[in-house]
């Protein structure tokens, strides 16, 4: 039995729990401070019958309306060296740890490897769900194991990296309807940080930033600082201008369509993929479609990075959906490319 009763709030306001600052409420909100809390929840028949949703930092979420069910907010803390071998350090963190603070802490301990993912909003537990990635690195490349509680069975489950089926902004957790049925609750993540470290600076923006600082042989801290500087310049701080990061995924298209787009638009950014397809920059497509810095009602596409949808004040979920649809329609008409939203839409009628 848990030492403390579960922290349960009725009719909770979610405005401060989503980085787009959309107003919405949930009928029930449970904050889970430990794996014991999660097991207690799984064992409670009244709660286990509720429709559930797992809420991380709310940085990849569009609240389209109120949620008639139980939201779970994992707030499990703690970070420690869990083990080491000749090649790597294995570092464990609780799901509720803030991602950026965790990355900074690993660097302060002398464990490099996560620096390219500095300043990504959200929690450690949410990082594997969409396989967060930036500046040439995806979290899957540094992951050893995800630890979760199967709320249907009330037992702990471990997902070694090979079982997570990671892809671009994708994982098994998304595919199995993780958010929608709230079956597995991530309680902690173990990272594998290699002792043999080399900076990942192939990304053009990073190369430029380091060159501008005159850093020829950067260490992990230099790379982290460069990434923080780039992000601060291009991406709005959700605390100042509410947003959910990239609003669309970068679309992957087949080689034939890539060749015809390139013939029409010689300057189009195209990233060849290992399977012969090509990834496009959604931000470029949106800018070309005329949406960079343009508003529709109280929302708009950000002036420094057209891929980021921002709440200019008092927006509701419906405003976000209207803009997203307008941008998708224009990009489809102009380029024949369908943009997929990156955040999860919740509570859509
Ligand atoms: N571009 C434009 N106009 C814009 C924005 C971008 O022409 O308004 C062009 C850029 O000039 C560049 C290309 O598009 O040629 C790519 O832009 P950028 O380097 O800014 O990266 P991105 O593809 O737009 C992705 C991730 C970001 C991540 C950056 C850096 C996705 C959906 N987004 O953005 O992730 O930080 O690369 O690695 O993959 C997030 O997922 O929330 C996120 C911010």
Keywords:
20 strands, 4-stranded mixed beta sheet, 5-stranded antiparallel beta sheet, alpha+beta, binds uridine-diphosphate-2(N-acetylglucosaminyl) butyric acid, 27% strand, 349 residues
Structure description:
With about 350 residues, the chain is of the alpha+beta class. Helix content is about 25%, strand content about 25%. It contains ten helices and 20 strands. It has a five-stranded antiparallel β-sheet. Strands 1-2-5-3 form a four-stranded mixed β-sheet. Strand 15 and strand 16 form a beta hairpin. The longest helix is centred in the last third of the chain and has 19 residues. The radius of gyration is 21 Å and the shape is globular. The mean pLDDT is about 95. The site of uridine-diphosphate-2(N-acetylglucosaminyl) butyric acid has 19 residues, from strand 13 and helix 9.
Number of strands: 20
Q: How does the major sheet shape up?
A: 5 strands, antiparallel
Percent helix, as a range, is: 25-40%
Distance between the ends:
38 Å
Average pLDDT for all residues: 94
Structural class: alpha+beta
Strand content: 25-35%
In the sheet with the most strands, the strands line up as: 6-7-12-10-11
Order of helices and strands: EEHHEEEEEHEEEEHHEHHEEHEEHEEEHE
Flag low-confidence runs.
none
